[in-house]
Amino acid sequence: MIKYIRFLQCFETAQLQEEIVQLEKKYWKEHYNKKYYEGGWSTIQLRAVNGDIENNIAIHTSALQKESPYKDTVLLEACPKIAAVIDFFKMEKTSVRLMKLNAGSEIKPHSDHDLSYEDGEVRIHIPIATNPDMAFYLEEEALQMLEGSCWYLNLSLQHRVTNAGDTDRVHLVIDGLVNDWVKAFFNQPEHERKEISDEKKMPVYSHADSLKIIEQLRLMNTAISIKMADDMEAALQQ
Model-level pTM greater than 0.85? Predict the structure, then answer.
């Protein structure tokens, strides 16, 4: 399973920053999931369900209904340089957004269910404006995401972000469906990538603790707890 990829591909950000400045402030829309963050976190929709610039909810493929397709918004027409970056990725796009995390703000630890290469949908992050005091943690590994760099992040894993700097951070965030182009691009050997094991590490208990847990499981007296107790007992005998 891929944890993240930093692609060899980089993008010039000066013109991208100019296009963002040209977008009126009224287009920044506060992120809908307020329990996920402290401070200011907002988006501009470049591609959204039915092309609606007011709809900043990113519906993953597993929940997407055919009668509510993603379409480019009118705002993308005003951003030809950003559009060219988006077009670099030869895949069917779902949500495409500019995402701003205000200075002094943080995104709390959370996971985005089913949003991974292995699940068939990828999210690309391209920092357009950032600062040295930005910190993006993917399972508590700090990633140095420089302006113009290009990343795939497995966001089905827990992640959090803090902006301790005095400037806002803006990322271009592109969601898309895995196809042959994505597979070929992701597997180019020159990219920097990190893999994680598909198997979750099981906790290791002492023999005495295992016996106590088995006893408690049997006291629960459910089909699941008894099966767990039996499995633990069998493991102790190996």
Answer: no
